[in-house]
Task: inverse folding
């Protein structure tokens, strides 16, 4: 009996000593909490995309708290709301956030870019590109297998006619699609600001590029000569537009013989016509009026375009800004 009591006392004593030791260790070895960083972290969306230039939301919050950066507007997914929240915590003035959206520099749809082989492997752009550059004739273009679709957490990307299309309204500028594209086709552009964009990334000489894709840039330099602001240059047989210098005048787009350059504001397309007369009557009134042909509705993969009373209508809730309706309009009244 005495032996049992002694054992119990011994175990209790060991537990007491261990408990006291752990309590002391928790105080001595405690990692100090950064309350300011935690407050800043609550202002961030938690995307952990790294678009801010840091390891993630925790890294950005820690850097702000420690004074390693004073920029309150680096979180693109959080936008102005996150910037204001961070500024309140830091006690500084909130910096403005320029809305940006991702854009795919390719128009190699099935009608423009054929296949050189039949790919039956894993449906991944990264893997397919390792096999002769992919199944398509143009080895620089979008493979349309959807790596960017899988990477996007905001359901902003669709594959339309073999090419990835990004909805600028749904895009949160996290750049996840930019990082994962094996062809480097996705770039960031200001949202709602007219800018010229080159829908091609082919760096082959003109004749070869045209042979592989009907919508390829041939490096003719006409766009460079037309630009009055020095915003366009040709590098490795492909035109490139400096969005910071571009004013959206559209002169380069007008001069492009292959219609590779477009001036887009990265916003939902709209029908620039309100005429509900029949086609022939509408054309008498306006040379650029909608004739209700319905080509735009047939092209739209999301069913966002309808024609009612001889006039096209676009449902912005369904529209993903793929641009196919704009390309198919014979009257160019969708802008």
Result:
């Amino acid at each position: 009996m005495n032996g049992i009591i002694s054992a119990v006392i011994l175990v209790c004593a060991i537990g007491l000593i261990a408990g006291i030791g752990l309590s002391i260790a928790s105080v001595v070895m405690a990692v100090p909490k950064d309350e300011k960083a935690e407050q800043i972290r609550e202002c961030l969306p938690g995307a952990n995309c790294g678009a801010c230039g840091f390891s993630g939301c925790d890294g950005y919050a820690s850097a702000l708290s420690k004074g390693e950066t004073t920029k309150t507007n680096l979180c693109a997914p959080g936008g102005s709301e996150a910037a204001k929240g961070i500024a309140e915590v830091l006690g500084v003035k909130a910096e403005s956030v320029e809305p940006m959206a991702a854009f795919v520099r390719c128009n190699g749809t099935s009608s423009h870019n054929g296949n050189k082989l039949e790919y039956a492997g894993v449906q991944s752009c990264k893997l397919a590109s390792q096999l002769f550059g992919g199944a398509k004739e143009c080895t620089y273009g979008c493979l349309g297998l959807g790596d960017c679709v899988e990477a996007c957490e905001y359901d902003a990307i669709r594959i339309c006619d073999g090419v990835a299309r990004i909805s600028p309204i749904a895009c949160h500028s996290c750049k996840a699609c930019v990082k994962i594209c094996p062809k480097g086709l996705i770039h960031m552009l200001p949202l709602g600001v007219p800018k010229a964009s080159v829908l091609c990334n082919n760096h082959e000489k003109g004749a070869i590029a045209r042979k592989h894709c009907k919508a390829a840039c041939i490096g003719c330099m006409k766009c460079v000569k037309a630009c009055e602001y020095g915003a366009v240059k040709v590098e490795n047989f492909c035109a490139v537009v400096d969005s910071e210098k571009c004013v959206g005048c559209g002169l380069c787009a007008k001069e492009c013989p292959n219609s590779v350059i477009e001036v887009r504001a990265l916003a939902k397309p709209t029908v620039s016509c309100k005429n509900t007369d029949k086609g022939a009557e509408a054309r008498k009134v306006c040379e650029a009026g909608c004739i209700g042909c319905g080509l735009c509705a047939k092209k739209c993969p999301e069913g966002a375009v309808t024609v009612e009373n001889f006039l096209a209508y676009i449902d912005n809730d369904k529209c993903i800004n793929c641009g196919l309706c704009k390309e198919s309009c014979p009257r160019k009244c969708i802008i």
Notes: Residues 2-28 form the longest helix (27 residues).
